[in-house]
Amino acid sequence: MTERGALRVRLHSLRREIAKFGAVGAVGTLVNFGVFNLVRHMTDLHVVRASVIATAIAIAFNYVGFRYFTYRDRDKSGRTKELTLFLLFSVVGLVIENGVLYAATYWFGWDGKLQANFFKFLGMGIATLFRFWSYRSWVFKTLPARETVAHAESFLEETATESPRPPVR
Fold first, then answer.
1. CA of 109: how far to CAs of 4, 33, 36, 47, 113, in Å?
2. pTM of the model
3. How do residues 9-55 score in pLDDT, each as one tens digit?
4. How far apart are CA 57 and CA 66, in angstroms?
5. How far does CA 42 lie from the centroid of its chain?
6. What CA–CA distance (Å, rounded) separates 152 from 94?
7. 72 by DSSP, 3-state: which?
8. pLDDT 10s digits, 118-168
């Protein structure tokens, strides 16, 4: 396989990963917003507390989706480490997401229902970029054997397409 072909395969794989991550994330977003608005309208909790509860529930939902759908082909040998890292990076994402909502609500006084949903959505978008990078880089790592096999196959294809050289005497 040529370098261009290998790049094309890697880009296709990345597109599929982003699509699967986005599908799980979209459903997780619906869970997050649904729980957020339900808690917000059914209780007297402050907006950020309601958001933290909703985000925590969405994190649990997303872990199942990422592990068994998006990254099901990734290394499964270190589940304790994987879950620990997932929770660590998810908490950082939770702080990013709810930090935006906190700033909008308590620093700028934008605490209307529409404003709260807008700033929750904005915070989720920023946190999603962080989560995508951290999950694929640290939590759901690619199996090293798969990369090695791909490299070996491309090397073999390149050698097979080269014209045979006469032996050096």
1. 52, 21, 19, 12, 12
2. 0.73
3. 888 888 988 899 889 999 999 999 999 999 999 999 999 999 999 99
4. 14
5. 30
6. 41
7. coil
8. 999 999 999 989 988 888 888 877 656 555 556 556 656 665 566 555 556
Structure tokens at 163: 């014209």
Q: DSSP secondary-structure letter at 143?
A: P
Structure tokens at 30: 């619906």
Give which of 10, 104, 129, 24 is closest to 70, Cα–Cα: 24
Please, are residues 136 and 113 in contact by the beta-carbon 8 Å criterion? no
Distance from CA of residue 130 to its chain's centroid? Answer: 8
Distance in angstroms between the alpha carbons of the first and the last residue of the chain: 30
Q: One-letter amino acid identity for 121? A: F
